[in-house]
Structures are given as structure tokens and as C-alpha cells.
Amino acid sequence: MKLACQEGLVPGNSLPERLEKLAAWGYEGIEFWGGGLKERVAEIQSALKHSPVKVSTVCAGFRGCLLDADPAQRDLAMQDIRDLLYVAGDLGAVGLIVVPIFGGPRIPNLSPLATPEQLERDLLLKLLEDLVQTAEKAGAHILLEPLNRYETHFLRRLEQATALCDA
To answer: Which of 4, 12, 115, 164 lies in the 20 to 30 Å Cα band around 31?
Structure first.
């Protein structure tokens, strides 16, 4: 088993100091928040050269929402996710953690034609067709993260994420 920790949880005044502490504590990985990460790539790569700790993952940090009713919000999320997949690849991370939507549905209920969840599933699968191609080019995985019912109505259990991956 490999241990990793989110950068923001590690005490220290600089990235090299945080990496040194993680290594001393037996950690092998560090997770970075995706927001603003593109501008830090050179700093992170420089600090990693002198550390046994490697980047494990990039955690979200994208704008917009993949499952928003507004196409502009979906496009914003798609572009940021594409960019972050390349950043994750450049840093040697396994991939980018993606939560498709926080909170309740943003797509209307079209029952009996389809529930919001059915529409969201179909929409996410369609968007993933594009994102998977980017992930392959970037050398990073898309890591769908199920969350508890207080954080999202969609994708709350591991088997739901597995079913999306198998679709």
C-alpha cells in the first residue's frame, strides 16, 4: 500500500519543506488541488527532482459543471478538465479526480421520458467519449469519485462508478 496526502494538509512554508516532511513520515505520494495548478507545474517539477515523493493525483479544481443544464458551464468544465489532464500527465500523476456534479440535479425532470439521473448518466457518458481521448493523449486517467449523499445525488457508490466505466 502506498500512502499519499493532499498538499494543503501538510504543514510547511514551501513545497520542498512539505515534500521533505512527507518523505520522513513514510508517504510516497502527494495530491495537488487542480485550481491554479497549471501555473505551478515548473515549481512542482523542480521540487520533485529532490524528493522521493511523487505526485499521486490531481484533485478536481475545474470550473463549471459537467452535468449542468447550461452548455456554457459544461464547456467550461470540459476545457478545464482537458487542461488538467495534461497537467496531471506532465506531473506524472495517475490522473485527475473528477466529481461530475455536486448537490442536486441541474437538469429538469423529463419523466416519463427520462429522470434527471438517466439524462445525467447519458450526458456524462457522451462527454467522457471526448475526455477519454484527451486522457489517453495526456497519459493520465480520469478518476470518477463517488461521494456521499450530502455532497451529490449522482454517483454515490463504487458500483455506480464501475457501471459508468463499463458502459
So the answer is: 164
Nearest CA to 51 out of 74, 28, 79, 77 is that of: 28
Integer Cα distance of 39 and 53 in angstroms = 20
Grid cell 495534461 — which residue?
Answer: 86
3 state DSSP class of 80: helix
Q: How far is CA 57 from the centre of its chain?
A: 8
Residue whose C-alpha cell is 464547456: 75
Number of structural domains in the chain? 1
**CATH code, domain carrying 16:** 3.20.20.150
Bridge partners, residue 68, by sequence = none
Q: Identify the three-state secondary structure at position 65.
A: coil
CA distance 46 to 51: 10
Question: Are β-strands 4-6 and 95-98 bridged in parallel, bridged antiparallel, or unpaired?
Answer: unpaired
Extract the C-alpha cell encoding 18. 512539505
Instruction: Tell me which residues of the chain have a pLDDT lower than 70.
Output: none
Range of the domain at 40: 4-159
As a whole number of Å, the CA-based R_g of the chain is 17
For 56-79, the pLDDT digits (tens) are 999 999 999 999 999 999 999 999
Alpha helices in 31-70 (DSSP H): 41-48
